[in-house]
Amino acid sequence: MKIYDNFGKDDSITSDVEVTCIGAFDGVHKGHIELINKTKEINKNFQIVTFDEIPKLYFDKSLKPLLDNKNKNNIFNDLKPTNLIYLKFDEINQLSSDEFLKYLDINLRTKKIVVGKDFKFGKNRSGDVDNIISYFGKDNVILLSDYIIDNEKVSSTKIRNFLDTGNIQKANNFLGREYELSGLVVKGKKLGSKIGFPTANLQLNNDLYLPKFGVYEISCKVNGNLFKGILNIGITPTVLNSKKVKIEAHLFNFNENIYDKNIVIQLKKFIREEIKFNSIDDLIKQINIDISSVKKK
Hints:
Layout: E1 2-7, E2 19-22, H1 30-42, E3 46-51, H2 55-59, H3 69-78, E4 83-87, H4 89-92, H5 97-107, E5 112-116, H6 129-136, E6 141-144, E7 148-149, E8 152-153, H7 156-164, H8 168-175, E9 179-186, H9 191-194, E10 200-204, E11 214-222, E12 225-234, E13 246-251, E14 262-273, H10 280-295
Parallel strand pairs: 1-4, 2-3, 2-5, 3-4, 5-6
Antiparallel strand pairs: 7-8, 9-10, 9-14, 10-13, 11-12, 11-14, 12-13
Helix pairs in contact: 5-6, 7-8
């Protein structure tokens, strides 16, 4: 897979490909994988065209990505495209719909194209799939309908909504994998250790979309090994009431020093909301209940 980063309006690829798929691929969920697999079925010599910044996030700075580019690249690499092209959205967004179609044709050497039926492009989103068909011809445009699970359209918006409500299992189902948070273990105030539950404090590698505050069942990858545990996301109101969001994992049967190491946390299930307890003893009792609920599985 050849990766083209920061691909501008005056750049061109150097290799011939038979088919192109294009999309924002926000989160790379099951619908996106279906689109890419359909492209691969048409010809294994294919390319994925996407954007260095997801358009939705470009226009709404309050939103955070569901997936960082490193993990996105790993997923794409497993699908074995010839090229992976990240278009510079701030430049490409200034092209008219006609200019963008010519750009696909000439700069990206597009012959056939696979795209979702709702795809919009060009300045002010002026172009749609009818424009693509008019330019490339009906036989060279393959449109994919919505990907449906349990009578619901799979979308990044739905996944964010599930994360907002703590419905991790449904978010994972729509993604086709467990939602992950990865980062560096940093030193905290060791308040967890003082009450008998040492935690790994995670400093995220990337600014990702965080789910609802609360306690989660997790698996954690450390040095290639997988450990079960629980995770708290929030402001720890009982012991600290921090203004800064903290991400703290307590791993079962684990006593290694992992400061300054990278770990990957996979969210499995929402256990309960983060609440302020009347006392530390009440907090300890609840943490024991949380741990028991996970270990019983």
